[in-house]
Each structure stands twice: as C-alpha cells, then as structure tokens.
Design goal:
Length: 666
C-alpha cells in the first residue's frame, strides 16, 4: 500500500506532506509516514528545518476515530508528538482548513505554527466525550494560557486563525495562497509557560455549569488543564493519559462517537444513489408567516437563498416579517451578525399576499394551520401555480403526506419537511418520504438541509413520523402516572436528572396545554381538558401544570394538585407509591418500544436515525446516545422485562433482539 505521506526537498528544508482524504485523519499509516519523514529530516545533515503540511481540504482533523477501541498500531500519537517536539531541527506546522484534536496536538509539538487566515484550530474531543490525549491539555495552557485552554478543551469549539494568533497559539499568518512557501521561511521559538491560575478555573466551571451538566468529559478536560498549572510536564502528561483512557472506556464517549457517525450516516438515503442529479433550488416559497413559517424562512435567508413569504392578511404578514427582522437584529446586537448581513437577509425576503407569486419558486414549503382539509385545498391550488419540477413540501408534524400529495397532479414532487420549533434554531429536520416521492426530490431536500445547516433524517409516512410518534406513548404514560400517585414535579425531575432539557409536563406548558384541545370548556374528560377549560394553557398564561411568576419561573401548583386529586377519585385509579425507577420504565422504555415498531414498519431507515431525531429535535442527552443506543447500553432484556412488568405489548423486533442477544446500534 502506498503511504499517504510524501516528502519534498526545498534546498535545506524538508516538507512532509500528508494526503489522506477526506480530512487527513491521523490513522496508523499517516502516523508511520510522519515518523519516517521526521527521521529522514533528522538523518540528513543538509536539512536545516522541517515543515509539516497537508494536501486536500484540511490539515489533520484529528485522530482517526474509526481506530478507537481497536488494537493500537505504533507509533501512538502522543509518541509521535513527543518525537516532533524533541527534534533539534525546527519543525513548522503549516495549517489550512481545520487543525482539530490530534491535528491541533501535532501543531503543539511543532516549534512553529503558521496558518492561512481562513484556517481554524481547536480541540473538539470533548464533543466525543473525550479529552485531547496527545499532550494537548498540557501544551495548550503552557502556550496560550489557562483561560483559552479551558475554552478550547472543555467546550470544544474551534477558533479562527486570527484569534489563535492573538492568543499565541499560532505564530504567524501566511498568505491565503502562499502557505507552503511561507512555512518554509521559518525558525525555532522559545517555550512559553502558563501562569498557575486556579481562580480562572473556578470561575470557568461556575459559568459553564449548565452547559456541562451530566457530561463527564468537560470536568476531565478542566482537571487536566488544572494539572498543567501545578505539575511538571511529564507528570501532567501521565495524568492526561490516565484521564483520557478513563473517558475512552466509558459509555458516554461511546455514545457521543455513535452520534458523530449517526449524524453523517443519516444523510444516506436507502435506494437512492449518492450521485443522483439534484434539482436546482434558487428561490424558496414559504406559506404562512407565523412562528413556524418565519423560522423556516430565516434558515434559507441566512444561507443566501431568497424567500417569497405568503400570508392571507396584511397585518399577519407585517407581524411575521417584523419578527424575522427582530430576530436578526437581536443576533446583530449580540455580535453574531454584521448590520449589512441583517440587511442582506431582509433584502432577500419578498413578502406577499398573493399565492400566485410562488410561480417562480423551486421549492414551496407550506406552514399553515394543522388541518387536512386546509392543506389539501392549498396543495390543490399550488398544483396550478407552481412551475413544473418545483418541489412541494408540507411542514405538517402529524398528517398523512400521501393524502396531501394526492390532492395534486404531481405526487412525485411532494414530501414532508418537518421543522422543529424554533425552526431557525433547532437542528433537526424530518424529511418525510411519501409513497410516490421521486428519488431526486428526496435527495435534493436532504442535500439542501446541509446547506441550511440542519441535520436531516428520512422518515416514512406514519402518524407523528419518528419524533412525535415516540413522544405520544411517553405523554400517555406520564398522565397515567399522575393518576396513580406521581406528581408533575416528580415525573419532570426524573426526566431532567436523566439529562433531558425538560420533562413531559414542563414541555406541555412550554408548547401550550391548549394544543389539540377540543375548545369546549364543558367537556372535561382528562386532566388536560380541566387545565385548558380553566385557561391554564401553560407558560403563555403563567399557569399550566405549574404556576409561573412574571419571569416564567415555575412553582408547583396547589390548583393542579386539586384537579389531579379530583380525577384520581373520579376514575378510581389504584394509588401506589411511584418510584423514580418506575417513571423511567414507564415513560422511557415505551419510547424504545415505539422506536422498535418504527424500525419494524420501515418508517426509519436505521436505529441510529431515531437517535439523531431525539438528540437534535428533543434534546435527548447526547452522552446517552439517543433512545436506541441507550436501550442497548441498558440491555434489551432488561427493557423487555420492564415493559412486560407494566403490561405493555412488546414489539417483535425488540423481543427478538433481546432473545438473540442482539443490539439496535453497532
Ligand atoms: N476520524 C475518522 N473519520 C473522520 C474524522 C476523524 N477524526 N473526521 C471526519 N471523518 C470522516 C467523517 O465520518 C466523514 O465520513 P463519511 O464521508 O464516510 O461520512 C468524512 O470524514 C467527512 O466528514 P464530514 O462530513 O464531517 O465533513 P465536513 O467537511 O462537514 O467536516 C470536519 C470536516 C470539521 C473535520 C468534521 O469532520 C469534524 O469535525 N471531524 C471530527 C473532528 C474531531 O472530532 N477530531 C478529534 C478526534 S479525537 C482525537 O483527535 C483524539 C486525540 O486527542 C488523541
């Protein structure tokens, strides 16, 4: 096998070049090639300096994650980085694209770092439940100080070259097109040391406590950086190794690595070749300027795709476009956008009351009231307005996309695009494949999702698709638990402790207790009906399953406790002490069961897609890897036993896998 590493001589400088597409991951062959290259440079007296650079779209994007958990092949990355650092000839890292993780650590072993202005540098290991395990936690604080080392390691977001230059993390910017030449003109630098600064560490921990809640890796990253402020280098490295191995063997990192690959796998569509010719999407139409329609429009505007937005009434149209502007201006006030970017986005928005103005759109997304008759009538009209080849999408969250498609003469151009609220923020997009949806329509929308920075998952046509369908059994059981003795506070606490951003009742209050309510205050058949009839519609009314103050801080409600007590009496539900474990078994296990049914019916392409839906659409804790990965770690036998104990009908697929010792995820 030819090595991904080659060398070039430029007089007295040896340039070592890696070419390991797609992202120059530091797999065994790359490490071996780098080691050989360094040895070659050291052995040759006529060589005065060594440059390491990469071909292709990026500098080393990290260790090769696919090698994790397999036997290690020499040289290990830490050994290689030490060898580079020990070289008595100066070694220069020439950075373009993204120098991430192990890639960043290679640069830290080098004596100089030069980067093009567009480059980014960082240590995202924490996002995989890990820490930089090739000396990064010890070299970063020494080179760039404790505060930046904490930011980079414990949060994991890369920084642009300019910021890295200011922080001393790189030494010089190269011309955007002159990296190779500029890098060759370089010499050796002195080592900087970090001032011990435990105060900064405590403040950082406090500031980010919420963000790090439940995760093991951020604390381990912080502990390593802290060690760098008090231990000699070699001891710091030993501590880093020990912490790295602990994380690597743990379930959280396995979960986070699972999601890294699951997210990328989700983009692949069964039965549709990767090279399918896509339709051109130059202008998008959005029908409805409410919260959903406005949020959906912002995704395209932010990506530079012009949007025509349609409403029925002038005041609703003005309100909707006003909200879009306000959202952009709020981002600008926080420094996330420049004023000219706000104007560019708003300039690409065409508000209208006239549906026929959608005639020149390549994709039209309907985001109107959730009612089948309304949607069918609208799609019938769109059929007469939209140009041939335009894609017609519905943002429905439950309704039958095939039925909607049948109201047009071109069902092959119709599909579902289910955005999650707030649509300009939430990363998930469920793309609902109708029975007749054409492969190129599906492929176009999946590719477009990437352009607008969404994580898209293909779902089949079924009630609630993947996410909301799995939510239903959870909500039903949560209500039953109230009747049998649990409180909303207890059920929600168990979910929050599990790592969810909120529990089922907090979610109802946020979304609106009145959603789906029949609107007849005299018809009270459930606790929800009783709350809705009293105007306890959730946070927007400062009363729902909880009472809220003006700042929307919740507190347990005496009135809700009364309503629950009345219902318990009325229905004669048997009371018992509900344990936290019972709440887990009765609200989370049925979600796994529903996930198994979804797979059985072919409504999701793969178990990992279900995990992606729950992580990106509902805030399932990524360190638990999504419901299907979590079920695998819990043990499928245990899940089946729990479901049976509580009288659920267990899905055949789940039962079979439990019996055969199988798993949902790999
Ligand atoms: N190892 C193995 N494969 C990797 C990889 C890695 N570190 N990084 C990316 N890939 C693969 C992806 O799985 C994908 O494969 P596919 O085409 O078969 O699905 C392909 O490379 C392209 O990746 P993306 O689709 O993500 O490409 P983008 O251009 O959108 O993004 C990127 C590029 C920013 C580099 C992004 O891939 C990324 O963030 N990669 C992970 C970086 C990372 O986490 N590095 C740390 C690794 S752990 C480590 O270094 C430990 C060390 O401290 C000891």
């Amino acid at each position: 096998m030819t090595s991904p590493i080659t060398t070039e001589r430029h007089d007295d400088v040896l340039v070592i070049i890696s070419n390991n597409p797609p992202v120059n991951a530091l797999g065994a062959a790359v490490r071996q090639g780098l080691e050989a290259g360094i040895k070659q440079g050291l052995a040759d007296d006529s060589i005065k300096a060594i440059v390491i650079r990469c071909d292709g779209r990026t500098f080393f994007a990290g260790a090769d994650i696919t090698e994790f958990g397999k036997p290690m092949q020499e040289p290990a990355l830490p050994t290689l980085v030490d060898m580079i650092e020990a070289s008595d000839k100066p070694v220069v890292a020439a950075i373009h694209g993204t120098a991430l993780g192990g890639g960043c650590e290679v640069t830290l072993g080098c004596h100089y770092r030069i980067a093009v202005p567009s480059a980014k540098i960082g240590t995202p290991e924490v996002k995989l439940g890990l820490l930089p395990g090739a000396g990064g936690t010890q070299r970063l604080p020494r080179l760039a100080g404790v505060p930046l080392a904490l930011e980079l390691t414990a949060k994991g977001d890369p920084i642009p070259a300019k910021k890295a230059l200011e922080a001393g993390l790189i030494d010089r910017l190269a011309g955007e097109d002159r990296l190779a030449a500029d890098a060759i003109a370089f010499g050796r630098a002195s080592e900087k040391t970090a001032a011990p600064d435990p105060a900064a560490i405590e403040a950082f921990k406090k500031e980010n406590a919420r963000r790090f809640r439940g995760f093991d890796a951020p604390a381990a990253n912080i502990a390593c950086v802290e060690a760098a402020t008090r231990l000699p280098f070699a001891e710091g490295i030993a501590f880093e190794r020990q912490e790295f191995m602990k994380l690597m063997m743990g379930v959280q990192s396995a979960a986070q690595r699972h999601i890294f690959f699951a997210e990328r796998q989700a983009a692949r569509i069964d039965g549709v070749p990767a090279d399918t010719r896509l339709r051109d999407i130059k202008r998008v139409g959005v029908i409805g300027a409410g919260t959903m329609g406005g949020g959906i429009s912002m995704n395209f505007l932010s990506a530079g795709i012009p949007v025509t937005i349609v409403e029925m009434q002038q005041d609703a149209l003005e309100r909707g476009t006003g909200v879009i502007r306000k959202n952009y201006e709020a981002s600008a006030a926080k420094g996330r956008l420049k004023p000219e970017q706000v104007e560019a986005a708003m300039g690409a928005l065409t508000p209208t009351l006239d549906l026929t103005k959608l005639a020149d759109c390549d994709l039209i997304i309907e985001a109107v009231y959730e009612n089948m008759d309304v949607k069918k009538e609208l799609f019938g009209k769109l059929d007469t307005i939209a140009k041939p080849g335009a894609i017609l999408a519905s943002n429905t969250s439950y309704l039958n996309v095939d039925e909607i498609a049948a109201s047009t003469s071109r069902p092959e151009d119709v599909l579902g695009m289910h955005f999650f609220s707030p649509a300009n923020v939430m990363k998930l997009l469920e793309v609902v494949r109708g029975a007749k949806t054409a492969p190129d329509v599906l492929a176009t929308v999946m590719a477009l999702a990437k352009t607008i920075k969404k994580v898209a998952v293909v779902a089949g046509v079924c009630h609630g698709f993947i996410g909301n369908r799995m939510l239903m059994p959870r909500q039903v059981e949560a209500m039953k638990l109230l009747m049998e003795g649990a409180t909303p506070e207890q059920v929600d606490r168990v979910h929050v402790e599990f790592g969810m951003p909120m529990g089922p009742f907090q979610m109802s209050d946020l979304a609106g207790v009145d959603i789906g309510w029949h609107r007849d205050p005299t018809r009270i058949e459930s606790i929800r009906d009783a709350l809705a009839a009293e105007g306890r519609w959730g946070q927007k009314k400062q009363a729902g399953f909880y009472d809220y103050d003006e700042k929307r801080n919740p507190s347990p409600s005496a009135r809700v406790a009364e309503i629950i007590a009345e219902f318990r009496k009325k229905t004669g539900a048997v009371q018992h002490e509900v344990t936290d474990q019972e709440i887990v078994e009765r609200t989370l296990y049925p979600m796994v069961n529903e996930g198994a049914l979804i797979l059985e019916e072919g409504m999701a392409q793969r178990a990992s897609d279900i995990d992606v839906v729950w992580i990106y659409g509902y805030g399932w804790p990524v360190y638990r890897g999504g419901p299907m990965f979590w079920a695998d770690t819990e043990g499928l036998k245990k899940i089946v036993a729990g479901l049976e104990k509580h009288g659920f009908a267990v899905a055949t697929l789940l039962k079979d896998k439990a019996e055969s010792g199988g798993r949902f995820t790999s």
